[in-house]
TrEMBL record:
GO terms for molecular function: oxidoreductase activity. Residues 9-119 form the FAD-binding FR-type domain. It holds the Pfam family NAD_binding_1. It comes from Pelagibaculum spongiae. This is Oxidoreductase.
Length: 320
């Protein structure tokens, strides 16, 4: 049952204060409250820029007049002045328009939205991210570091150019244990773990840095499924594995039904889920859909085109 409140969904005004390329077709944006020059106190700060209102793992809806609105995850928590970061891929109409804008430009935003990651500040956490999935876990990594929880981070990408958030990773090298992997090492400037060997890499990390209390993962859905199955295969409890789902969203506040999965609305009940909850949801959704319609778990999902022997279609053979 989703309780609807009469709340104002008018976007707050924000300003782009910084923008730089951070991976292929990806830009790192810094946003700030539009009226920050008027030395805002915390009560006047729009919620979406308010350090006390945002949790790592939540998202906001970015509006560009005449281009539309779309969901983006907080890649950092807002600071005292309301500045926060997002890592954004140029993929369609809204992001094309956003990439044309320069620092100083005005945009709109609504948020924060959805459920963030659990607290876990006194836990030993393994964070596993793939590709752009690093953005939704980045603020959580920083929060765990700040809480002296010493997270261990494993990050893999298709190739070196897709190893996003370079500045944050350089900082984490000093602040926590960071493992980096790429699928295609050709031309790489240094040596990396082999991204396709996820199970072997996790074995090694658990042996060297484990045991872990919780796992947080975000990336292509095939990778997240592989992580969950590998960890479960090692006897790791499903209710200690957390992941973030990306579903097509329109309203972001539980009104339009675009993001529904089984009886959940991912925009308000998610996007973060425990693996035991999610497994149940996937089973329910399969039961609801016509048998011939494939289970679409978001645009990052893909099938193994090579039909390798032993592939369960979920990345276990390294096909994703
Ligand atoms: C909770 C959440 C957090 C997100 N965080 C980020 C983030 O931090 N950075 C980022 O770059 N993107 C993020 N996204 C994705 C972003 O909202 C979409 O890529 C958005 O559609 C971009 O708008 P656009 O107008 O540029 O592209 P569109 O024109 O909307 O999309 C271009 C093409 O991609 C397809 N497509 C895009 N998104 C989806 C989807 N979710 N499911 C199925 N098909 C899709 C469209 O069908 C279309 O073919 C997030 C999405 C969600 C739900
Ligand atoms: S996006 Fe509208 S209900 Fe979730």
């Amino acid at each position: 049952m989703h309780k609807q409140q009469l709340i104002d969904h008018t976007p707050a005004l924000m300003r782009i204060v910084d923008k730089y390329q951070d991976g292929e077709d990806l830009c790192h944006f810094t946003f700030a409250p539009f009226n920050e020059g008027e030395s805002l106190n915390k009560d006047e700060m729009p919620d979406l820029c308010n350090i006390n209102k945002v949790q790592p793992g939540q998202f906001m809806m970015l509006t560009i007049p005449n281009a539309g609105e779309a969901a983006f995850t907080y890649a950092s928590m807002p600071d005292e002045n309301g500045h926060f970061h997002c890592l954004i891929r140029k993929i369609g109409e809204l992001t094309d328009a956003l990439f044309e804008l320069e620092p100083g430009a005005m945009v709109g935003g609504r948020g924060p939205m959805g459920q963030g990651w659990p607290n876990l500040k006194d836990k030993k956490v393994l964070v596993i991210a793939g590709g752009c999935g690093l953005a939704p876990v980045a603020a959580k990594v920083d929060a765990l570091i700040e809480a002296s929880a010493e997270p261990v981070v494993y990050f893999s990408a298709r190739n070196e150019a897709m190893l996003v958030m370079k500045k944050e990773r350089e900082r984490w090298q000093e602040q926590c244990k960071l493992y980096e992997a790429v699928d295609d090492c050709s031309g790489a400037s240094k040596s990396y773990l082999a991204g396709r060997q996820l199970a072997d890499n996790l074995d090694q990390i658990i042996q060297d840095d484990g045991p872990f209390d919780h796992v947080i993962t975000c990336g292509p859905e095939g990778m997240m499924l592989a992580v969950c199955r590998i960890m479960e295969g090692k006897g790791f409890p499903a209710d200690h594995i957390w992941l973030s789902l990306e579903r097509r969203m329109h309203c972001g506040v539980g009104l339009c039904g675009h993001c529904y999965m089984a009886d959940h609305l991912v925009c308000v009940d998610g996007p973060t889920y425990r693996w035991d909850q999610l497994g149940e949801l996937v089973v329910k959704e399969k039961a609801i859909r016509a048998p011939e319609s494939p289970l679409d778990m978001g645009h990052a999902a893909s099938n193994c085109g090579e039909e390798k022997e032993g592939c369960d279609g979920n990345g276990g053979c390294g096909c994703r």
